[in-house]
Write a sequence for this structure.
């Protein structure tokens, strides 16, 4: 009798495991996608840009973008849930995720190749504007520092960092320094 009860309990446990959607979803699930590109900052500097997405599935993945110099030193790393990034809305499987990552590192909507293309900061304005979309300078960048960056025409790297904005950085003395966030319709 005891063996019959133990056998029935084991059968019940096995049946629960087969019908448990959470347990079934674990088998073969996961999102593991990556891509790489280069960014020619200027005639003498080319940086490597890597992007990857990892998660229990592609709709719950975290995407990471990393920029490295020619020696492999990390100049910038940014990570965010793909659900919070513009351009990842349709990235529901690894193939679609690789396409979204490739667009992310290719920077198709980049503000410009250098800081001279940043939107102007009109005298008396609270912040620079690109049409109707404000540019929010990083902490410590006032209108004078911003104007100096524009005049210096430094190489600029931008990446989508949310649903309605991209973060921009100036390449200065081998470092990527934050400039600010450019908003766009999302």
């Amino acid at each position: 009798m005891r063996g019959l009860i133990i056998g029935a309990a084991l059968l019940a446990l096995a049946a629960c495991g087969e019908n448990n959607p959470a347990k079934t979803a674990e088998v073969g699930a996961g999102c593991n996608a990556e891509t790489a590109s280069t960014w020619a900052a200027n005639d003498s500097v080319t940086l490597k840009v890597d992007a990857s997405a990892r998660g229990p599935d592609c709709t719950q993945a975290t995407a990471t973008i990393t920029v490295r110099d020619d020696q492999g030193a990390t100049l910038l790393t940014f990570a965010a849930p793909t659900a919070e990034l513009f351009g990842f809305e349709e990235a529901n499987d690894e193939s679609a995720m690789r396409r979204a990552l490739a667009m992310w590192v290719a920077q198709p909507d980049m503000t410009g190749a250098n800081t001279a293309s940043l939107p102007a900061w009109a005298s008396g304005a609270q912040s620079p504007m690109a049409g109707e979309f404000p540019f929010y300078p990083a902490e410590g960048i006032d209108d004078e520092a911003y104007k100096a960056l524009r005049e210096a025409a430094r190489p600029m790297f931008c990446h989508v960092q949310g649903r309605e904005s991209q973060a921009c950085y100036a390449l200065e003395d081998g470092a990527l320094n934050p400039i600010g966030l450019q908003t766009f319709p999302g």
In short: The first strand starts at residue 31 and ends at 40. DSSP finds four helices and nine strands in the chain. Confidence is low (pLDDT under 50) at residues 1-28.
